[in-house]
Automatic annotation (TrEMBL), chain A:
Identification of the protein by name: Eukaryotic translation initiation factor 3 subunit G
The species this protein was found in: Petrolisthes manimaculis
Keyword Ubl conjugation: no
Keywords tagged on the record: Cytoplasm, Initiation factor, Protein biosynthesis, RNA-binding
Similarity remark: Belongs to the eIF-3 subunit G family.
Domain RRM: 214-292
Region (Disordered): 1-33, 164-212
A Gene Ontology BP annotation from the UniProt entry: formation of cytoplasmic translation initiation complex
Localization per Swiss-Prot or TrEMBL: Cytoplasm
Annotated CDD domains: eIF3G (cd12933), RRM_eIF3G_like (cd12408)
Automatic annotation (TrEMBL), chain B:
SUPFAM superfamilies xrefs: WD40 repeat-like
Gene3D superfamilies: YVTN repeat-like/Quinoprotein amine dehydrogenase (2.130.10.10)
The family this protein is said to belong to: Belongs to the WD repeat STRAP family. Belongs to the eIF-3 subunit I family.
Keywords in alphabetical order: Cytoplasm, Initiation factor, Protein biosynthesis, Repeat, WD repeat
Subunit structure: Component of the eukaryotic translation initiation factor 3 (eIF-3) complex.
Function: Component of the eukaryotic translation initiation factor 3 (eIF-3) complex, which is involved in protein synthesis of a specialized repertoire of mRNAs and, together with other initiation factors, stimulates binding of mRNA and methionyl-tRNAi to the 40S ribosome. The eIF-3 complex specifically targets and initiates translation of a subset of mRNAs involved in cell proliferation.
Keyword Transcription: no
UniProt cross-references to InterPro entries, sorted A to Z: eIF3i (IPR027525), WD40/YVTN_repeat-like_dom_sf (IPR015943), WD40_PAC1 (IPR020472), WD40_repeat_CS (IPR019775), WD40_repeat_dom_sf (IPR036322), WD40_rpt (IPR001680)
GO molecular function, one term: translation initiation factor activity
Protein name: Eukaryotic translation initiation factor 3 subunit I
Location(s) in or outside the cell: Cytoplasm
GO BP annotations, alphabetical order: formation of cytoplasmic translation initiation complex
């Protein structure tokens, strides 16, 4: 509590007000009414002898009602409410917390949801499992056309390269010939004997060497960035051969940097010129040439 | 929606009722003073002081001039709604369980409990002179031979019949003039807790302890629909806007004696909305922390009020979501 002198100097200080209440004076109730709303400020002492200020806001609504209802509204209160002031008494009438009507989804919706889920599962499986014979979404072993298609396919393989031939990429022409003769696929072929085993394979080194000439590094990406976003962002500058977005192994969220391999160096250069310092997703991108990795 | 909570009673609510226009809401509880409130803002108009026992049942005359209360203190009182004065105090031999004004407001039907050697009775008296009521019934019927006491009473159309709901689950339609049974509905297996008329008075909904509510055709007393829940139903009401929103609201919960041993979360004290025709539940509203003992729609169908074992009356006005809800079928 400041000294009496200080309180005198500053007229409207809070200390002044406290003094007043301690003296037993409570400010009078203030009522403001501006037609649409009413505000009542009341002061009272609570059980601990502290001053409590209660501000109540009322919204005034006007309703047009039948005469009988209007008459009833003017009746004087009686019984337990005899001494109540006009308007709701806060002791008996409380505005309760907001409650919501909770709508129950009915059975049909539930069914639909279940079906959707099933469909999703099926779709997800579609991508994972693909028959090598008929390209449908089941395992090759369970293919209903196995007996018909397999001999046909193996015979065709000799002349044509089938698109998803990776599983059999290692098979030598000799093997293919064997298969036509009825030998099963699972036969082991040593790496040196496999297709391409004789020639020098594309090494990782060479791939990188080629790419890095036109690779840009993008940093300061936001966590929510996805490959598609980068594709949208960089595609206008030229053909992109590869996008690598560093992601957290567990959460799958972006780690904030990415590498974009352009097909042409000029395109990459253009991208750097334009996008370095570009505001994207509330962050400012930093785009620069990727440095050759030190391990090389 | 933000309900208004009315806190005027010291004990659990037994019955709430709107007047015909819906501007007044009457509430009765196991304490001795029925209350009347303005439904628009929850302001209490007053209380009716004089009873000395639980108020079991209340009713209000069509023009909101008279209020009727039946009590366990073995009296039925008629009150002036405007002043809160007791106009007439009628003493009975046993406690009064159900009371109801006739549609015309000239007669009152009431049922009494079976107690102290007296049988449960259905009586009708003339109240055309409320200040000087002749307490001798113009029709008197013993609720025999089942002798299960009548808990609720309603007038049928044109004041030609009276319908009572009984402790053994029977719904009985009586001829007003002869005092004989016309129809008996025995679909309910346990006691009838509440009966309410539809807005046009052609249908009746009963709430029973056997966990169901039923919709009846008044003319034939045929059970048209059944609304099944998993707990005793204490009260059920049909919306006045039955043509646009064919809905039924039900309130209940477990037995009052078990309430303290279960939490509100699993106590299932919500008001439950059912589709009138398809008998399927489509919405719930939480709020009470005891079973709902009495529930009714506002006569304009834009809201409802519920009174619970917790002693509170909650007055709700529907959100837009209620009107926009489309029932899929």
């Amino acid at each position: 509590m400041p000294s009496a002198g200080a309180a005198d100097e500053v007229k409207s200080s809070w200390a002044d007000e406290v003094e007043e209440v301690e003296g037993g004076h409570l400010p009078a109730t203030v009522e403001k009414n501006d037609g649409n709303s009413k505000t009542i400020i009341e002061y009272s002492l609570n059980d601990d002898g502290k001053k409590v200020k209660i501000t109540s806001h009322y919204k005034i609504e006007k309703h047009r009602v039948a005469r009988t209802i209007a008459v009833r509204k003017t009746w004087r209160k009686y019984g337990l409410s005899k001494s109540d002031k006009p308007g709701p008494n806060p002791a008996t009438t409380i505005t309760a917390e907001d409650v919501f009507m909770h709508f129950l989804s009915n059975k049909e919706e539930e069914m639909n949801e279940q079906e959707e889920l099933k469909e999703k599962l099926i779709n997800a499986q579609k991508g994972q499992v693909k028959c090598r014979l008929c390209k449908e979404d089941h395992w090759t072993k369970q293919c209903p056309y196995k007996d018909k298609l397999e001999p046909l396919r193996t015979s065709l393989l000799g002349e044509e390269k089938v698109e998803d031939d990776q599983a059999q990429a290692g098979a030598t022409p000799a093997d293919k010939a064997n298969k036509i003769g009825g030998v099963t696929q699972g036969k082991y072929v040593p790496p040196s004997m496999r297709d391409g085993g004789s020639k020098k394979g594309e090494s990782m080194m060479s791939a990188r060497g080629r790419d890095e000439t036109a690779t840009v590094r993008v940093t300061n990406l936001s966590e929510n960035t996805r490959e598609q976003d980068l594709q949208d962002l960089f595609r206008p500058f030229g053909d992109i051969s590869r996008i690598f977005l560093a992601k957290d192994k567990n959460t799958g969220q972006s780690k904030g940097f990415a590498f974009i391999n352009f097909k042409r160096r000029e395109d990459a250069n253009k991208a750097i010129q334009t996008l370095n310092g570009y505001g994207y997703d509330h962050l400012i991108l930093s785009v620069e040439w990727a440095k050759p990795s030190t391990t090389q | 929606m933000k309900p208004i909570m009315l806190q005027g009673h010291e004990r659990s609510i037994t019955q709430i009722k709107f007047n015909r226009e819906g501007d007044l809401l009457f509430s009765a509880s196991k304490d001795v003073k029925p209350n009347v409130w303005y439904s628009i803002n929850g302001e209490r108009l007053g209380s009716y002081d004089g009873h000395s026992g639980t108020i079991w049942s209340i009713d209000v005359k069509w023009d909101s001039s008279l209020f009727l209360s039946g009590s366990a203190d073995q009296t039925m009182r008629i009150w002036d709604v405007e002043t809160g004065n007791c106009v007439s105090d009628l003493e009975m031999k046993t406690s009064v369980r159900g009371v109801n004004f006739s549609y015309s407001g000239t007669m009152v039907a009431y049922t009494t409990d079976k107690m102290m050697g007296h049988h449960s009775e259905l009586n009708i008296i003339d109240i055309r002179e409320p200040n000087n009521v002749d307490a001798t019934p113009i029709m008197k019927t013993q609720v025999t031979p089942t002798d299960a006491k009548a808990l609720a009473v309603l007038w049928g159309p044109l004041d030609e019949c009276v319908i009572t709901g009984h402790e053994d689950g029977a719904v009985i339609k009586w001829d007003m003039r002869t005092g004989k049974k016309i129809e008996v509905g025995t679909e309910h297996t346990k006691q009838i807790k509440d009966m309410q008329l539809s807005h046009d008075g052609m249908m009746l909904i009963t709430a029973s302890k056997d966990t169901t509510a039923r919709l009846w055709d008044i003319a034939t007393l045929e059970s048209l629909k059944m609304y099944k829940t998993d707990r005793p139903v204490n009260s059920a009401a049909i919306t006045p806007l039955v043509d646009q929103f064919p809905h039924v609201v039900m309130g209940g919960g477990q037995e009052a004696m078990d309430v303290t041993t279960t939490s509100a979360r699993i106590g299932k004290f919500d008001a439950r909305f059912f589709h009138l025709v398809f008998e399927e539940e489509f919405a719930r509203v939480k709020g009470h922390f005891g079973p709902i003992n009495s529930i009714c729609f506002h006569p304009n169908g834009r809201g409802y009020a519920s009174g619970g074992e917790d002693g509170y009356v909650r007055v709700h006005v529907f959100d837009d979501a209620y009107y926009q809800f489309k029932f899929d079928f």
